[in-house]
Structures are given as C-alpha cells and as structure tokens.
Amino acid sequence: GENVEQHPSTLSVQEGDSAVIKCTYSDSASNYFPWYKQELGKGPQLIIDIRSNVGEKKDQRIAVTLNKTAKHFSLHITETQPEDSAVYFCAASLTGNTPLVFGKGTRLSVIA
Amino acid sequence: DADVTQTPRNRITKTGKRIMLECSQTKGHDRMYWYRQDPGLGLRLIYYSFDVKDINKGEISDGYSVSRQAQAKFSLSLESAIPNQTALYFCATSANRAGANVLTFGAGSRLTVL
C-alpha cells in the first residue's frame, strides 16, 4: 500500500521568513495530495490540495508543488506569521475511493 | 454546533474495560473514518465506512471494532482496553466525490488507559 514520508518533523522559522515542508510517496498511481493544518486542541483542517495533473497550486501565502517523476510534493508558506504555528500533515490517496494515507506531521513554530 | 461531534472529549479508564467513542455528523456525508494520533506517528487509520452497510479495516484495526448505526453515526469500541491504546482519536467524514476525499475532522477524543 501507499507510504508517505514527511520531513522535517519540527521546523522553527522567524516571523516573515518562508517555511517548506516536504513529503514523498511510494505509489506512483496516487493522484490526490492534500495538506492539513492542526492547531492546538483541534482536529486537522484542509488548507490546500493538489491533483496529479497539476504541478503547482497557490492560495495567498501558501503553495503546493508536485513532482510526479520524483514522487514528492512540498508545502511552501511565505511571509510566515505566528498564527501559522501548528502541526502540518501531508497525505496521499490512490483514488477517490481509497482513504488518505498521512505523513507523520511537521510541527511548525513561527518565532515573533 | 460542530459539523462532526465526538463524545466523550476526554476519558480515563483502566486496563480491561470496554470503551466506546461516539461520532455524529451533520454534514450529510456518506463516508466516515476513525483515525488515531500518537506523537511522532501521525494519523493512522483504524476503520472506515463508505456507507451504512460498508465497514472496512484500516492500517491498525486490531483491538478495535466499529458500528455504523446510521448515516450520521459511527462509533468506535475498544472491547478490552490496554495501555498502548492511550492516544488521541479522531472521527472524520467526507463526501463521495470522485478523485478526492476532503476530510472534515471532529475535535478529537483523548483516551487514557491506566
């Protein structure tokens, strides 16, 4: 089955700097790659997703890139703010009828 | 009210006890899931259900069972709890949309087994 590796496990950045979180997946047939943000005491929430027919997607300060050949995708957060501090999870799924497989998460701390 | 409600939010129990975690949703979604979160291990799938008559095992189903009582309700049971089942449990739902499962998570149920 699918296996998703996520790095780094922890990341500290200064406010205003950029943050990058990287994930690799094992099944080349996977075609959907979402990112979830988990704030303290809450459940994860979808922040951005990308499908395999697209190489990059942006939404304000966040962007996701996908390299199908290398089987990796990344989350980019620019101009980080203290409210970006959270745990971020990447995930992958083979089709709409298979559950998401999550990475182990990255704890992002934005230092004011 | 929350779209996905989990009860209880916190529970402390003893080894060998039977525990039920309940989940209800007002999203109208067909699909429901139970995930377990442990520090450093991310979110791991326990069971999932794509409709009322469908139950599937996930990555770590041993020691757990589920019941889909209605479209809106999905409960997780630990028949005889053990300490390594201490974790944060999340229920999630998604709509049946081809190509993507966009999950809506509950706030979580923290279970401690002594």
Explain how this protein is built.
The complex is a heterodimer of chains A (112) and B (114). Chain A is mostly beta strands and 112 residues long. Chain A is globular. The mean pLDDT of chain A is 95. In chain A, strand 6 and strand 7 (62-67) form a beta hairpin. The relative contact order of chain A is 0.34. Chain A has strands spanning 4-7, 10-14, 19-25, 32-38, 45-51, 56-59, 62-67, 72-77, 86-92, 101-102, 106-111. Chain B is mainly β. Classes of the chains: A mainly beta (112), B mainly beta (114). Chains A and B meet through strand 4, strand 5 and strand 10 of A and strand 5 of B.
Detail the topology: elements first, then pairings.
The complex is a heterodimer of chains A (112) and B (114).
Chain A: E1 4-7, E2 10-14, E3 19-25, E4 32-38, E5 45-51, E6 56-59, E7 62-67, E8 72-77, E9 86-92, E10 101-102, E11 106-111
Parallel strand pairs in A: 2-11
Antiparallel strand pairs in A: 1-3, 3-8, 4-5, 4-9, 6-7, 7-8, 9-10, 9-11
Chain B: E1 4-7, E2 10-13, E3 19-25, E4 31-38, E5 42-49, E6 56-57, E7 65-70, E8 73-78, E9 87-94, E10 104-105, E11 109-113
Parallel strand pairs in B: 2-11
Antiparallel strand pairs in B: 1-3, 3-8, 4-5, 4-9, 5-6, 7-8, 9-10, 9-11
Instruction: Specify the number of helices of chain A.
Output: 0
What is the H/E string of chain B?
A: EEEEEEEEEEE
Distance between the termini of chain A: 41 Å
What is the rounded Rg of chain A?
13 Å
Q: What summary fits the major beta sheet of chain A?
A: 6 strands, mixed
Please give the largest β-sheet of chain B. Answer: 7 strands, mixed
List keywords for this structure.
heterodimer; A: 112 residues; mainly beta; six-stranded mixed β-sheet; five-stranded antiparallel β-sheet; 11 strands; B: 114 residues
Please give a quick description of this structure:
The complex is a heterodimer of chains A (112) and B (114). Chain A is mostly beta strands and 112 residues long.
